[in-house]
Input
Amino acid sequence: MHQLTVLITNLLSFGLGFMIASRFLYGNAVKQVSKDKQRQMFPVCIAEYMEGNYYLYTEKPQTFLCQAPTIEELAKTLKNNKHISLAFVVSKDVKTEMFWFADGEATPTSPNSMLPKINN
Output
């Protein structure tokens, strides 16, 4: 009888430890995946104005996306050519400006503003 009690106690302890450890590991994995997915949800881009055109690059890694004569056209070109519906864009011209490119439209914004709505 004593051996049976010890066996049941050990099995319960093992099961409880396994459940706690798996929840801890699973929770950390979900948090990491969530951070990675947030980075992939929309690119952060840099727009540079040179010689009559805006050139749009991803921030990291710096990859050329498209070019256009105006910020508004840049948003349309990004959606039509690269099929990117949402991007946060920092324009480094005479002054630094920030935009949300959503569904081919450029909306001036600030770092604390909310995400724009996308029509699908």
Q: What stands out?
A: The radius of gyration is 25 Å. The CA atoms of residues 28 and 34 lie 10 Å apart. Strands lie at 44-50, 53-58, 64-68, 86-92, 96-102, 105-109.
